[in-house]
């Protein structure tokens, strides 16, 4: 593993949507062992920023049954202007973060994604784009190849029908093809497998990813947030327990949360206050 990869993994481990990284086995997250250290928005205001989720849109071509962001074709790009996002990205860097992630919804549907990525790179941050890889335009391929950019995507099954059952569109082929292309181009890619169905073919999905040469595979359980609510609903039990450890999420309307999942814990709004003031 290169030093760059080691550094990225140390930045990524445990910071992105609670994923646990391991190429070998895929254990379930033991909920009973999760130590909840934040029970309210107040608790997370005390740390230095290391990482930010920039949730730039609520739109998506897919409509996954489990989507914590409740995204879909009717989702909105929100009220944040490009100028607002550029300011937030600059403030993220000025707050000490070394990496930011463009996420949604589907961030590649935001018309200014390439410009915002370029701006983030200009500030000196590394950038991750978290995309379903369903449709990648030629311009987006160029953005993906910029130094300092890495990709994350989602994969659920080796079986097209099971995958479609989860994403609500026949998306497995496109995601697989574009994942393989990223690999060919040498663009760093990590893949998240989220278990949302009983007896889901997630291990077989990981086998396919390994065949494509993708070893950075993370695994998560369903979090009961947004469309992911089943029996329990959103509360701290659905979180990873590391709230307040240098992460923050900004929504399409400028709302700031401790992370992308903890959407019921507003800390402030970047359209009214600076990220520094909100995170202080
Ligand atoms: C919200 S999506 C946004 C990026 C992109 N649209 C995608 O799906 O890859 C980011 C990741 O969150 C995961 N996710 C969505 N809802 C979830 C939930 N309720 N519990 C756990 N993971 C979830 C998705 O499976 C995906 O891997
Ligand atoms: S999980 Fe990702 S791909 Fe699925 S609906 Fe949500 S934003 Fe879209």
TrEMBL record:
Instruction: Alphabetically list the UniProt keywords.
Output: Iron, Iron-sulfur, Metal-binding, S-adenosyl-L-methionine
What InterPro entries does its record include? 4Fe4S-binding_SPASM_dom, Aldolase_TIM, Radical_SAM_PqqE_MftC-like, rSAM, rSAM_sf
Q: Which Pfam families match?
A: Radical_SAM, SPASM
Protein's UniProt keywords contain Metal-binding? yes
Which part of the chain is the 4Fe4S-binding SPASM domain?
A: 240-278
Gene3D superfamilies documented for this protein: Aldolase class I
Keyword presence, Iron-sulfur: yes
Domain Radical SAM core: residue ranges: 55-189
GO MF terms here are: catalytic activity; iron-sulfur cluster binding; metal ion binding
Q: What PANTHER family does the annotation carry?
A: RADICAL SAM DOMAIN PROTEIN (PTHR11228), TUNGSTEN-CONTAINING ALDEHYDE FERREDOXIN OXIDOREDUCTASE COFACTOR MODIFYING PROTEIN (PTHR11228:SF34)
The entry's protein name is: MoaA/NifB/PqqE/SkfB family radical SAM enzyme
Naturally occurring in which organism (per UniProt): Streptosporangium saharense
């Amino acid at each position: 593993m290169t030093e760059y990869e080691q550094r990225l993994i140390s930045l990524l481990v445990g910071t992105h949507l609670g994923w646990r990284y391991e190429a070998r086995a895929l254990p379930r997250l033991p909920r009973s062992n999760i130590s909840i250290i934040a029970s309210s928005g107040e608790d997370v205001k005390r740390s230095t920023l290391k990482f930010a989720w920039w949730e730039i849109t609520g739109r998506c071509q897919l409509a996954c049954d489990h989507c914590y962001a409740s995204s879909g074709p009717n989702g909105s790009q929100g009220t944040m202007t490009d100028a607002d996002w550029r300011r937030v990205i600059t403030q993220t860097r000025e707050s000490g973060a070394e990496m930011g992630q463009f996420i949604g919804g589907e961030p590649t549907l935001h018309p200014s994604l390439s410009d915002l990525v370029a701006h983030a790179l200009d500030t000196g941050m590394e950038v991750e784009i978290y995309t379903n890889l369903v449709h990648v335009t030629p311009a987006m391929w160029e953005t993906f190849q910029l130094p300092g950019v890495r990709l994350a995507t989602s994969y659920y099954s080796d079986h097209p029908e099971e995958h479609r059952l989860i994403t609500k569109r026949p998306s497995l082929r496109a995601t697989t093809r574009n994942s393989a292309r990223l690999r060919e181009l040498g663009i760093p890619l990590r893949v998240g497998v989220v278990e949302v169905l009983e007896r889901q073919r997630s291990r077989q999905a990981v086998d396919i990813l390994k065949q494509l040469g993708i070893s950075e595979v993370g695994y998560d359980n369903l979090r009961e947030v947004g469309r992911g609510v089943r029996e329990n609903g959103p509360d701290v039990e659905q979180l990873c327990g590391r709230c307040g450890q240098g992460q923050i999420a900004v929504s399409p309307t400028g709302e700031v949360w401790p992370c992308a999942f903890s959407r019921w814990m507003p800390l402030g709004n970047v359209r009214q206050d600076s990220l520094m003031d909100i995170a202080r």
